[in-house]
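Notebook p. 47: complex prediction with zinc ion.
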Amino acid sequence: MSLKQSIKSLRAPFFKVFNSHKPAFTCPICQYHGPFKDKKARQHAKCPKCGENERSRLQYLVLKHVLENYDEPDAKVLHIAPEFSIQRYFSSKFKNYTTADKFRTNVDIQFDVMDIPFPDHSFDIVYASHILLYPQDDLKAISEVHRVLKPNGIAIIPMPIFREKTVDDYSPEARWIHQSGLDYFDRYLKFFPHLQMYYSHMFPEQYQLYACDSSPGNPLSVDALRREDLVPVCYGDEVDPRFNLVLPND
Ligand SMILES: [Zn+2]
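Predicted complex, structure tokens below:
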């Protein structure tokens, strides 16, 4: 938790008292139990104690699940555009942990994901959430992640789902060059032979892993209010059985 969030978290008990009429959930990251905060149009989005949202809670649960039996403190991990909760989890579990970003300076190394400055087969785990929205040549970026990953490693590269089919918009004013649809993950399969998908519904409801923002056109909508999120885990050319391959309750 950052210092700013640590100070904010002091308000969590008061938020809980004043919102006791709202549904209660449990944060898997900090173990807070009580109502979550709304974030713009998204209801029950944010944990008032650690500040993490639905997306981070699901990603954290997927990581914990996949790495449940992976007891390798010397494994090499690369985390691009690091989120605080995931960063804390990785650094507590692995000694050879490297953070990276294109612009941020509070990381170990800066680089563009289309040109990762590490030799082939350098890492056991690469983690990079929502970064492929931005690179001009996203296939080059995916090939770079594949290149630096060991053949028995895993790459976790979540993307937001906006629609059924991906739209690539190379206009200068585009906020995101690649507006990913459900078919986006086919691009991973050009490089990675195995892909395992984890969805919100595979984990207990108490963690509130849905975006509650009434997005009726979204292919991951499950009812009038909620849509699922998903986390893709890419396996290299050799699937290492030390990673937990069994899906959670489906
Ligand atoms: Zn929390």
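Notes: The chain is about 20% helix and 25% strand. The CA atoms of residues 158 and 234 lie 10 Å apart.
Next step: compare against the earlier run before touching the bench.
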